[in-house]
Amino acid sequence: MYCTLDELKTRITEKTMAMLSNDTSPSTVDEEVVNIAIESASNLIDGYLLGHGYTLPLTDTQSILKELCLDISTFYLKKRRPPVPEYEKTNFEQALSTLKLIQSGAILLNVISDQTGESITGRANGFFVTSIKKDVIPKKIMDNY
Question: Which of 60, 75, 86, 138 is deepest in the core (most CB within 10 A)?
């Protein structure tokens, strides 16, 4: 999982988390429900990474993946008690957009290889954005030279 219950508590107060997670006693956090939301968010992230050169699940949790997992988990919990606030919907949609950029290669994760212990991308911890190259001169014209 890309985030923990304690990390999620930095985003959602314990009182709010209890109301969102517990159907019988809204004064107590139902950790099972919260962990299911976190696991679902982590599975969604893995779904975007699957087949794109990453060995899953990633053990070297990237800060960007933790932030995405927190946003998605928060959305999953809040949708249990509609209506979901607009800013939470926006955060969720932005998280999905970021996952699509990771999937397309526009954002590359710095993943440590289990076998060599070295960074696969050769970059510092975290993530970086690469540009998507567009030809300045069309390929048809360049083929003539």
Answer: 75
Q: Which residue has the tokens 């999982």?
A: 1
Q: Residue 11: which of 71, 94, 99, 92 has the closest Cα? A: 71
What SS3 class is residue 112? Answer: strand
User: With 50 as the cut, is the pLDDT of residue 124 above it?
Assistant: no
The number of angstroms, rounded, from the C-alpha of 3 to the middle of its chain's C-alpha atoms is: 9
Question: Is the predicted pLDDT of residue 17 greater than 90, yes or no?
Answer: yes
> pLDDT tens-digit profile of 21-42?
999 999 999 999 999 999 999 9
What single-letter amino acid sits at 135?
Answer: D
CA dihedral of residues 7, 60, 2, 89 (deg, nearest 10): 100
Q: How far apart are CA 39 and CA 41, in angstroms?
A: 5
Q: Which residue in this structure is represented by tokens 């299911």?
A: 36
All structural domains of the chain with their residue ranges: 5-104
64, 109 contact by CB (below 8 A): yes
Report the pLDDT value the prediction gives residue 64, as an integer from 0 to 100.
92
